[in-house]
Amino acid sequence: MPGGMSAPIPSSPGPRPGTVSVCMATYDGEAHVREQLASILAQLGPDDEVVVVDDGSRDGTVAIIEGMGDRRIRLERNPKNLGPVRTFERALSLSRNETIFFSDQDDVWVSGKVERFKAALAASGASCVVSDATFTTEDLTPVHGYFESRGAGPGVVKNFVRNTYLGCCMALSHRAKEWVLPFPSLILQHDEWTGMCCEIVTGVHFLPERLTLYRRHGKTVTNWKSKSLPVVARNRARYLTAIAGRLPALIRHRHAVRGRR
């Protein structure tokens, strides 16, 4: 499609007020997925949901999720391995509630996270909130805070130069699906794309509370290692092309949102 866009995703039904969707992508996550899901489900109500899309796990991930026997978990499986960006895109497209979280498969949510995010979304007027997190070892020994280590904060230019929209610390309003989906084929990170789109339309609120234990281990998908300048330049060019292709629509959404305020 023009501008590197992927095929359109059908719209989901309208949100149920006050409810939560958690979008989780899984792949060979048997070591920690049960603990993560337990920390999430403990904070959800009976009408909330966890949309889990498994990306072709070869271990016991799917069996563990099914074995939890919680009707709030909606488990879907990709027909083939699509990678984290497309898997999160599918989970987001399937979400149907008012407040939508992204979740990794191997972290732990701090008690009260859901309510703090819902309050921050309501108070800030932003369509996206990013909270601080505690980086930990695999056994959850605290190492340092996310905001302080990355200099996290709002701003289009700031986050284009160095992304600080961290998906496992992010929640968005259901309306944001209008400008975030579909994900362009050019992007390499679902959270960077989501954060930037919301930044342009409504702004993103950064919440200085550590509400996630962000577990780092050998199988962690996110790569924090420094990349060479040519790789960074190539990635930024891809991202700029994707943003440019969506920019007219984002500006229209921005005007529409401001007109409703």
Describe this structure in words.
The protein has helices at 33-41, 61-67, 84-94, 113-124, 146-150, 156-161, 177-180, 190-201, 229-260; strands at 16-26, 49-54, 73-77, 97-103, 108-109, 128-136, 142-145, 170-173, 204-215. It is of the alpha/beta class. The protein has one domain: Alpha-Beta Complex (Spore Coat Polysaccharide Biosynthesis Protein SpsA, Chain A). Strands 1, 2, 3, 4, 5, 6, 7, 8 and 9 form a 9-stranded mixed sheet that branches. Helix 1 links the parallel strand 1 (16-26) and strand 2 (49-54). The longest helix has 32 residues, at 229-260.
Short description:
The chain is α/β, with parallel strands linked by helices and 261 residues long.
List the topology elements.
Elements: E1 16-26, H1 33-41, E2 49-54, H2 61-67, E3 73-77, H3 84-94, E4 97-103, E5 108-109, H4 113-124, E6 128-136, E7 142-145, H5 146-150, H6 156-161, E8 170-173, H7 177-180, H8 190-201, E9 204-215, H9 229-260
Parallel strand pairs: 1-2, 1-4, 2-3, 6-9
Antiparallel strand pairs: 4-8, 5-9, 6-7, 6-8
Helix pairs in contact: 8-9
Total E-strand runs:
9
Largest sheet: 9 strands, mixed
Structural class: alpha/beta
**How much β-strand is present in the residues?**
15-25%
**CATH 4th-level superfamily:** Spore Coat Polysaccharide Biosynthesis Protein SpsA, Chain A
Uncertain residue ranges: 1-12
Helix content: 25-40%
- The sequence of SSEs as H and E is EHEHEHEEHEEHHEHHEH
The CATH class assignment is Alpha Beta
